[in-house]
Amino acid sequence: TQLLEQSPQFLSIQEGENLTVYCNSSSVFSSLQWYRQEPGEGPVLLVTVVTGGEVKKLKRLTFQFGDARKDSSLHITAAQPGDTGLYLCAGAIQGAQKLVFGQGTRLTINP
Amino acid sequence: GAVVSQHPSWVICKSGTSVKIECRSLDFQATTMFWYRQFPKQSLMLMATSNEGSKATYEQGVEKDKFLINHASLTLSTLTVTSAHPEDSSFYICSARDPRTTINYEQYFGPGTRLTVT
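Predict the joint structure of the above. Result:
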């Protein structure tokens, strides 16, 4: 059962444009992480959001955790070719050791 | 901090042989490590959760006799693919939880191992 629905799964845009990636669930998460993965490498942790309504910024990336802690979004402003990669959201359910991963968003930024 | 390494980074083996992949936490002690499998252009699929000093917990559909996991120390977990077949070819990634940040359940990933079975 896929508990985290991530959308879109594929996105190809021009350099300089803005974009938003969404992760939605009917489950409540104690925390949610966003990772970025490049081909042939392991995912790299970008951010963790913990509190409902929390907003975190990482340069041009803005991460938001929904008020009910069931959803999250990643917004990139003025995308650059270096932002190209697979973005993964992952939710932690209270008491469970493992993370639930979304399907991933494969982002391509064209120069 | 929170660096995880994997060895080898890639391996080619013949059908029917076994191959061992190592996962190490370099600057922290990891009581819990995870093994994932990733197919091309897809997300991560959790295979098993490995706890130091105890048996691994396998996800539904993962053959425990085929994918042997050993977590004998706080810095090392190994995945052995036994009697490998071409359908076992994949990208295998391990991760570890850093107890210093465990409250938020973050996992730190190794660079992955590309396994090709011929």
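The mean pLDDT of chain B is 92.
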